[in-house]
Design a protein that fits this description.
39% of the residues lie in helices and 42% in strands. By secondary structure, it is α+β, with helices and mostly antiparallel strands. The relative contact order is 0.15.
């Protein structure tokens, strides 16, 4: 009788615990802030080379500020307008991305090598950039970006 009772308890526990274990195993691990911002940086390079305006609209804060390698200051609207009117045609490859997280703020530092044209002019070059991301209402948004040309030696 004790064995039958023990068997019933074990079967009941297995019936309760196994589905919970299966659903826990099915859930992907949460991305760290560093992983999330790194993925956004890689996606940004793709969005630039494909002129993906929707990506910029989704991932840039309303008051975002961009400083170009030529020292030009742009806001979100003018950055998107330029992307529409002067799309980059070519390829872009990131050399490296490093992300440092400070709570709900992340600083991304990286390099990229662009090969292509923009507005009919050669836009090839290697650039170093620093992007500032802030987690706003649960979403990482870029609030500031600065790019500098790395001169060939």
């Amino acid at each position: 009788m004790k064995r039958l009772f023990a068997l019933v308890v074990i079967v009941a526990l297995v019936g309760v615990l196994v589905p919970g274990l299966a659903s826990a195993q099915a859930k992907p691990a949460a991305q760290t802030a560093e992983q999330a911002v790194t993925a956004l940086e890689h996606a940004w390079l793709t969005a630039f080379t494909t002129s993906d305006v929707a990506w910029y609209q989704t991932n840039m804060a309303a008051g975002a500020v961009f400083t170009s390698e030529k020292g030009e200051l742009r806001d979100k609207a003018s950055t998107i307008a330029r992307l529409k009117s002067e799309p980059f045609k070519g390829t872009s490859t990131d050399a490296d991305v490093k992300v440092i997280v400070y709570g709900d703020t992340a600083i991304a530092i990286g390099t990229e090598t662009d090969k292509g044209t923009q507005n009919g002019k050669d836009a090839s070059g290697t650039y170093r950039w620093t992007d500032t991301w802030v987690k706003i209402n649960g979403q990482w948004l870029c609030v500031a970006s600065h790019s500098s040309t790395i001169e060939k030696k």
